[in-house]
Design goal:
Number of domains: 2
CATH architecture of the largest domain: 3-Layer(aba) Sandwich
Distance between the termini: 35 Å
Strand order of the largest sheet: 6-7-8-3-9-10
Shape: globular
Strand content: 15-25%
Largest sheet: 6 strands, mixed
Helix content: 25-40%
Number of strands: 20
Structural class: alpha/beta
CATH superfamily of the largest domain: P-loop containing nucleotide triphosphate hydrolases
Length: about 500
């Protein structure tokens, strides 16, 4: 058997001497697939990057060996590492937008690894369910949905024909239909090109469908390693048992009363969103409304428009029966405070060079709500330790970044919280924590617009839903069988 990756006794420590990874052992063969599973901060991304010799500043190798594509990574020269990263391996991170250059069109980005071969590029786009017309190829990353960004970034790295493909949360932000399509095409491409596949993630159903073997991490420790189906059938660790168990949250009772937010005949006026109908709905205090639909239908556009970040638009939006300007800069300070957005890609919205504490303090100061201990209180509210205030965003996992983004949104004590895929980058247990927090906020009277591809999560906290598909908007219960079947999201 030809091994692409061999890891034995790997230990990595942080500047304080604590083990970030402790005694990790696994192998990955040509054409094989392995899933790294664990909670936020477990060390999954650190392990994935260690395979490429890319350790975070201050981390050091304390023991063990990594052999990747024939290269002894921990003893390699800078030249050998460059060859490993650019010729033999490919990495796609958690935030697809960061993998793409903002000022380059889709066409130019794909040409980086496959110069001038238009047929190969169009074939790859087709295999990943993306348009192949010139209009799409001329778009820039900011003109794509989150799901489209991820698939373009995936197409870009697959054009390298790597020996090892590492995907960090590859299915986050995709509805089930597109997720299953991507998994099917990954399997097909893997059979065709025989690359080894390392999946870093938390979506267990996706892992079971595509990964032959699985490694479970917790606080840098290797809890379980073996055949995926066998581990699913007989999990030994309490963590994996908890993940596989059926977990539910109590759905809050909708607070009756006058609508807090009302949207009437809204449409962004974007010619690219022709499939999106004019929307009308109302959101009451204490109500959680799910917004579901395929990738690219316009869900995130709706979120940004309600927050005043995507002007102008057609139709009307009112808050407490008062008109809301389409541009947030024309709204009163109270109106700006009343609606908070938690965006889909937290790494994009957090300043990379400012500490978590400074960013939360700035949000508090903006609304004159700062008091001693308020930053620590915000972190505690989203389940993070107070000492995280000293960390930079790059020192956090994707799930931890999402919780910081949520804490910042809560700094203004909003009455309407818009959550755009807030659980998509979280493991099962962290997602449960967020859903419990949202349930508490709903019980206190906050209104929540919950944009998601995860219908099981929506069922836990939402009492109604707005389903967008094929030019229609179905406003009703998100638990209807018809909507489940139409969206194909039952897990």
């Amino acid at each position: 058997m030809l091994w692409v990756v061999q890891v034995s006794g790997l230990t990595i420590r942080n500047p304080q001497g604590d083990a970030v990874l402790q005694d990790i052992n696994f192998e990955l063969a040509t054409g094989g697939s392995l899933a790294l599973i664990g909670g936020s901060g477990a060390g999954k991304s650190t392990l994935g990057r260690a395979l490429l010799g890319d350790l975070t500043s201050g981390q050091r190798h304390a023991g063990g060996q990594i052999i990747c594509c024939g290269c002894e990574v921990l003893q390699a020269t800078p030249r050998q590492l460059r060859q490993l990263r650019f010729r033999h391996t490919a990495w796609l991170g958690q935030d697809p937008a960061q993998e793409l250059t903002p000022g380059m069109s889709v066409r130019r980005q794909l040409n980086e690894f496959h110069h001038g071969d238009a047929s190969a590029i169009r074939e790859m786009l087709s295999s990943l369910g993306l348009p192949q017309d010139d209009a799409f190829l001329q778009r820039f990353p900011h003109q794509l949905s989150g799901g489209q960004c991820r698939r373009v970034a995936l197409a870009r790295v697959l054009l390298k024909r790597p020996q090892l493909l590492i995907l960090d949360e590859p299915f986050a932000g995709l509805d089930r239909r597109h997720r299953e399509q991507m998994m099917a095409e990954l399997r097909q491409l893997q059979r065709q090109y025989r690359f080894a596949l390392l999946l870093i993630g938390h979506q267990l159903n996706a892992v079971a469908d595509i990964a032959q073997r699985m490694l479970v991490l917790h606080n840098g420790q290797q809890l379980e390693y073996g055949d995926t189906r066998q581990l699913f059938a007989t999990p030994k660790s309490p963590l994996l048992q908890a993940w596989l168990s059926h977990v539910t949250c109590s759905r809050p009772v909708t607070t009756e009363g006058e609508p807090l937010l009302r949207v009437t005949h809204w449409h962004p006026g974007d010619s690219r969103l022709t499939a999106l109908p004019a929307l009308s709905f109302a959101l009451h205090p204490g109500q959680c409304l799910a917004v579901t639909g395929p990738s690219g239908i316009g869900k995130s556009t709706l979120a940004r428009s309600l927050a005043g970040l995507n002007p102008p638009h057609q139709g009307a939006i009112t808050l407490d029966d008062r008109p809301l300007a389409s541009d947030v800069r024309r709204r009163s300070r109270e109106q700006q405070r009343a609606i908070a957005l938690v965006p889909q890609d937290p790494a994009h919205s957090l300043h990379p060079l400012r500490s978590v504490g400074r960013q939360l303090q700035q949000a508090l100061d903006r609304y004159r709500l700062s008091h001693p201990g308020s930053v620590a209180a915000l972190l505690h509210q989203v389940g993070l330790p107070g000492d995280y205030a000293r960390r930079l965003p790059r020192e956090l996992s994707g799930g931890e970044q999402q919780r910081v983004a949520l804490a910042r949104a809560l700094a203004g004590q909003p009455s309407v919280l818009i959550c755009d895929e807030v659980t998509s980058a979280l493991d099962v247990l962290s997602a449960r924590t967020i859903l419990q927090l949202l349930s508490q906020l709903l019980a206190q009277g906050m209104a929540v617009l919950f944009i998601t591809h995860d219908l099981p999560a929506a069922r836990q906290i939402c009492t109604a839903g707005l389903h967008l598909s094929g030019g229609d908007a179905d406003l009703g219960a998100v638990f209807d069988k018809e909507i489940c079947d139409d969206f194909n999201m039952r897990d």
